[in-house]
Each structure stands twice: as C-alpha cells, then as structure tokens.
Specification:
The protein is of the alpha/beta class and 402 residues long. 28% of the residues lie in helices and 18% in strands. The protein has 2 domains: 8-87, no CATH class; 103-393, 3-Layer(aba) Sandwich (Rossmann fold), CATH 3.40.50. Bound molecules: guanosine-5'-triphosphate, magnesium ion and zinc ion (2 copies).
C-alpha cells in the first residue's frame, strides 16, 4: 500500500510514526481561559531516557482535514494555549525545529568494544563544528538542550580540555542512552543566490559490549533498523595480521571475553540488518555502510610512501572528493589481505550493495601510558571522510565524479 503520509523516524528513539501522529507539549504558560497547566514528570521520557524533570503535559494534535499537511501548532485541550512544540508520540522527545520538512538522516555508529567509537564521535563532531565546518561553510549545532549540554560538558570538555579518554560506554543501557542530534546546515551559492541545505543527523554511540551476543545485539536492532547510514568502526589492532605490523610499543586492546574480533562483529551486524530489512532472493542490504578502520596512526609507518593513508586528504574544495576516497577504499581493501581480514571483504561484497572502506585516526597518535591524550594534542586524520561520504550518498553534499 502506498501511504500518502510517508513515515517519519524519531531521531531520539528511532521509532517510526505517521506525521499526523506527532504530539505537542503545552507551553505551561497562562492560557486564554486563565488556566495554567502544571508541569509533571513525563513517564515516556522517564522510562526511555531516565529524564525525570517536570514538564507541562502532552496532547495530540490530530490531522488537518482536507490536506496532506500536518499541524505545526495545536491548542492544549486543558488551558487552550497554543503550542508549537512538537514531540515524538513514542518517547516524547521534542522534535527538531525543521523536523519533517528537512532531510532527517539517522547515522548509527557501531563497532566492537574498545574500537574507539566514543573518541571518534567526539572528535568527528568537534571537527564538523570547526575546521570541516569552515571548509564546507557548514553550521553544525546541537538540535536540543540535552545534546548541546551533553556534548560540550561530557564529551568535548573531557577529551579536549581535560585530556581524559572516555571509559567504556555502559552496555545494556541502549534504552537510557540518548542519541546526540545535530542539525547540519550547508551553504551553497547557486544561481539564485546563497541557499542552505539542512540535514538532521542523529548519532547513536553503541556500547561495544552490546555486540557480543545475539541477545544484546537485539537491543540495538531498532537503532540499526532506523538508520539511514551506518559507520561501522573496526579496530585493526583487534586483527592478528595488523597487530604484527603495529608500531613497536603500541598498546594492544585487551582480548577478554567482552571483546570480539571484527569478523564476528560484522557477521552479527549483517544478520541484524537482514532481520531488520528482510532478505529476498539475491537481495543485498542497501543501507550505505562506511567501514572505517580506526587507530591508523599505529600502522601508518609501515605503509608505502605513496600510500593514500600517508597523505593529507584534499581539503581545499567544499565537495566530497570521490577520487581520493576510492583510492583509499582500494588501498584498505588491499591492506585487509595483510591484516588477515579477507573475510571482511567477502562479507561486505556478498551482502552490501553500498559500502566503502576508510582509514582514520581520531587522536592522530597513541595515548600516553596512563591512557590520556598525548600532551602534544589531538591531531585527527581523515575523521570526516566516512561522514562526508554518507552525506554525499544522501545528496546532502556535492561530490566530484569518481
Ligand atoms: N592510537 C590510537 N588509539 C585510540 C584512538 N582512538 C581511541 N584509541 C584508544 O582506544 C580506546 C578506546 O576508545 P573508546 O572511544 O572508548 O572506544 P569505544 O569503541 O567507545 O569502546 P566501548 O565504549 O567500550 O564500546 C581509547 O581509550 C584509546 O586508548 C586513536 O585514534 N589512536
Ligand atoms: Mg564507548
Ligand atoms: Zn496546557
Ligand atoms: Zn522518539
């Protein structure tokens, strides 16, 4: 059945809903009938995200008759005050201002324990807000108070100002951890003057431990099912062949029963995606997957001098450089042979219609022996490439022809 109302997906809980199901939250101000709605703990927010603050009540807006449009404001049935604060009917999170009208793309970040996901997400967002943002004339801002406060206080402050690397992301709490939602606005000068393209992106940083067993993978199924693009971070240091090639002195990740090798993780993620999207005869998974190998700083010294992973990526044009990206892709594919990772390439080719390999380093160097950021600072290398590729796949960013 073709629906007139394509389904939307909440960037916070990744649950789908029809546009006319969007709910509203009362402003809590004095209404025209002299009543004021009392703030109370919101059960949906509390259950899902452990957010317990008292908020004004929520109510349904309903469909506007005779049009395909949905409401952008509605009247509170109690105080009769008008509200424009739209919320998700499932988790009651406030939806971003342009939600439903602009592209909304959910990007899930997954990978085994200790691959560097939390560090990567922090550095990527920091770069997008700073140097990469300047290059693309892009503004990247947190879409809600929680994202803004959480990102600057918990992630950026710790890594950039206190030089502290994050602890293991707590597993089994996918219900409570809330994705960080950002609005990416890219300026373009067109014939009709400057235009802006908005994309809402939602980042969900999974706990690597949740990818160990089938049951705990299921916790993340909803996030994977709702994702428009996936960044799968794999740690070459968890692969035998690469361990041997690592710069002497590199601390190798602990291999305990909570860590899993990249092939097993990829196998399970593939199964989950087939479960989520269905599997027809000969059908492949169509969600674009950026397969990014982290911590490249520990391996770069052994690459040939002309390796694309030894040179700086082109950064003078505000476009995604397909040529450079494809050279990196081929190079990483070749490296997989040396790293005992041929199986990864076999799985990707067989099951994914759209994927690309990347090599990156969030920190640009090894952490100190007590696992703090090196005093010389953070020197990210190619961290934005996977994200820019996804944006180009979403047609949210121009790219050169490959
Ligand atoms: N050499 C090097 N080490 C890194 C880099 N990024 C992360 N690491 C190391 O990897 C460790 C794990 O990074 P996290 O970002 O916490 O990993 P995670 O994937 O979030 O792990 P979980 O939350 O346990 O799933 C860090 O404490 C660092 O020691 C990098 O760019 N280079
Ligand atoms: Mg983490
Ligand atoms: Zn009210
Ligand atoms: Zn929601």
């Amino acid at each position: 059945m073709i629906s007139l109302f394509p389904s939307l997906v909440c960037p916070y809980c990744y649950q789908p809903f029809q546009p006319h199901k969007i709910m509203f939250r009362c402003t809590g101000l004095l209404g025209p009938n002299g009543e004021r709605c009392k703030p109370e703990r919101d059960r949906a927010l509390s259950q899902r995200f452990a957010m317990n603050e008292a908020l004004p009540p929520v109510f349904t807006g309903g469909r506007l008759t005779g049009t395909n449009k949905w409401r952008t404001s509605a009247c509170c049935p109690h105080c009769r005050g008008e509200s424009t604060q739209r919320i998700c009917p499932h988790c009651h999170s406030t939806l971003p201002v342009h939600f439903g009208k602009v592209d909304s793309r959910l990007v899930a970040l997954i990978g085994a324990k200790g691959t560097g996901k939390t560090v990567y997400m922090t550095v990527l967002l920091h770069e997008l807000m700073n140097s990469v943002g300047r290059r693309f004339d892009a503004a990247v801002v947190g879409s809600d108070d929680h994202t803004r406060a959480e990102f600057s206080r918990k992630y950026e402050e710790m890594l950039y100002r206190q030089s502290v690397l994050p602890g293991t992301t707590r597993p089994g709490q996918a219900e409570i951890r809330r994705p960080l939602v950002f609005k990416v606005t890219i300026g373009r000068s067109g014939r009709l003057g400057p235009r802006h393209r908005h994309t809402i992106t939602s980042f969900f940083d999974t706990a690597g431990e949740d990818l160990i067993s089938k049951e705990s993978v299921d916790l993340n199924v909803r996030y994977l099912r709702g994702a428009d693009g996936i960044v799968l971070l794999l740690d070459p240091l968890q692969m035998r062949g690469a361990q041997a090639a690592a710069r002497p002195g590199t601390r190798l990740p602990a291999s305990d029963d909570k860590t899993d090798n990249p092939v097993n993780v990829l196998t399970r993620v593939t199964e989950v995606l087939y479960e989520a999207h269905g599997r027809g005869p000969g059908r492949q998974i169509t969600v674009p997957v950026a397969v990014a190998f982290s911590k490249i700083d520990t391996l770069r010294h052994a690459f040939p001098a002309d390796s694309p992973l030894r040179r700086e990526p082109p950064d003078d044009q505000p476009v995604f450089d397909q040529g450079d990206s494809l050279v990196v892709h081929d190079h990483v594919r070749a490296l997989l042979h040396e790293w005992d990772g041929v199986q990864i390439d076999q799985i990707m080719r067989k099951n994914f219609a759209s994927f690309r390999y990347f090599g990156l380093s969030s920190l640009g160097g090894s952490p100190t022996s007590d696992n703090r950021v090196d005093p010389r600072g953070i020197h990210p290398y190619r961290v934005a490439d996977p994200f820019l590729w996804l944006l180009s796949r979403f047609n949210a960013l121009p790219s050169t022809k490959g």
